[in-house]
Amino acid sequence: MARMKGLAMLDFDKIGWIEKEVPSIGPNDALCRPLALSPCTSDVHTVWERALGQRHDLILGHEASAEVIEVGSLVKDFKPGDKVIVPAITPDWQAVESQSGFSQHSGGMLNGWKFSNAKDGVFGDYFHVNEADGNLAHLPDEIDPVDAVMLSDMVPTGFHGADNAEVAYGDTVVVVGIGPVGLMAVAGCALRGAGRIFAVGSRKRCQEVAIQYGATDTVNYRDGDIVEQIKDTMGGKPVDKVILAGGDNDTFDQAVRLVRPGGIISNINYLGTGDYIKIPRVDWGLGMGHIRITGGLMPGGRKNMEYLSRLMVYGRLDVSPMLTHRFDKFEDLEPALLMMKDKPADLIKPVVKLY
User: Fold this and answer.
1) I need a surface site. Which of 40, 204, 242, 315 has the fewest CB within 10 A?
2) Phi and psi (nearest 5°) for 5?
3) SS3 state at 233
4) Residue-wise over 315-349: b if at least 16 C-beta within 10 A, else e?
5) Bridge-partner residues for 174, per DSSP?
6) Which of 149, 120, 154 is nearest to 46 (CA)?
7) Residue 14's closest CA among 42, 68, 56, 70?
8) 236 alpha-carbon distance from chain centroid
9) Yes or no: domain 3-153+298-353 corresponds to CATH 3.40.710.10
10) Paired strand residues for 118
11) Among 217, 143, 208, 218, which residue's Cα sits nearest to residue 348?
12) With 0-12 CB in 10 A as exposed, 13-18 as middle and 19+ as buried, what is 352?
């Protein structure tokens, strides 16, 4: 069997390069070669925060644009040589959960998330994509493969936060955490017509880019309790929606204290540690405040990639301000991932170009 190289989780707190057999494909699947890759904070949670449990020699990564190398006999819409967008979430579309509208959980909780979770991820010379016709999207000529990597996870996750919050025209929204996912939540809120958008984060570069994407106000949590800061600015009034794209388990307490009765708290933050979240009883209306709390893994699949890519093709969304660090060798994946772990002040997102 042919062999390939990949960047893997070797053990808790340990990554390294390994060799494995090139994946074999079934009749509905595809074998792809990455064109551009980006590490994610989720990879950090997996390796250094033990969020998914033990993984040995699991190739990491779930953000890629790619070239199709081989397709199964039943694949209709893709062929070798096609350039494609690869979503981070690749559901089993015949599963009951998919038919119920929750493809992200096809086969069980979070099982639509396969790359670097249930199987090897995209940080290899080659990677396997299940159900290619349902999970790949053709890469438009107008989109650079480097920019397209943001369509894998950052854009759909951030937009999913705005969708789940049901952001409407004129809403006042708080986005907590303005890394790349939070920045895309800000952009999604702006596109959905939010009136005022508070972007909560401490890094100046992220604050600047949040303004570019439509934030009207920035709040630094290092300057004090964000609830007090925002309510002071609002004359004591609550906000309509809160999107959690950062923080920790205790941040739910602040979200509940910020939002109005009947408001929505939409969590898209990966809670990698701890056992419980805190909900303040009185601020939650003693459990009767009609404050809705929802949390959702981004939707995967072809349709979502095709629709979101139109925003880039037609000038509605420019992801380039997020791509702060660019690399051009496969071996650069390791320092890029460590950069996501250490988060220098000028970092938003690193990307590795392979073409």
Assistant:
1) 315
2) -110, 150
3) helix
4) eebebeebbbbebeebebbbebbebbeeeeeebbb
5) 198, 242
6) 120
7) 56
8) 33
9) no
10) none
11) 208
12) buried
Quote the CA–CA distance of 345 and 343 in Å, as a whole number: 6
Token representation of residue 192: 């959905």
Whether the Cβ atoms of residue 137 and residue 84 lie closer than 8 Å to each other: yes
pLDDT of residue 50: 81
The answer to whether 186 and 167 have CB atoms below 8 angstroms apart is no
Instruction: Record the tokens describing residue 18, joined without a space.
Output: 């390994």
d(CA 210, CA 183): 6
Q: How far apart are CA 3 and CA 1, in angstroms?
A: 6
DSSP-based three-state secondary structure for 261: strand
From edge to edge, which strands make up the β-sheet containing 14-21? Answer: 14-21, 3-11, 58-59
Domain boundaries defined on the chain? 3-153+298-353, 161-295
CA distance readout (Å), 229 to 83, 133, 236, 242: 47, 48, 10, 15
- Written as tens digits, the pLDDT of the chain (355 aa) is 699 999 999 999 999 999 999 999 999 999 999 999 999 999 998 999 887 778 899 999 999 999 999 999 999 999 999 999 999 999 999 999 999 999 999 999 999 999 999 999 999 999 999 999 999 999 999 999 999 999 999 999 999 999 999 999 999 999 999 999 999 999 999 999 999 999 999 999 999 999 999 999 999 999 999 999 999 999 999 999 999 999 999 999 999 999 999 999 999 999 888 889 989 999 999 999 999 999 999 999 999 999 999 999 999 999 999 999 999 999 999 999 999 999 999 999 999 999 8
Residue type, 116: S
Residue 139: is it exposed, middle or buried by C-beta count within 10 angstroms (0-12/13-18/19+)? buried
Second CATH level (architecture) for the domain 161-295: 3-Layer(aba) Sandwich (3.40)
User: Which tokens in the block code for residue 108?
Assistant: 């069980």
Measured from the Cβ of residue 19, the count of other Cβ atoms closer than 10 Å reads 12
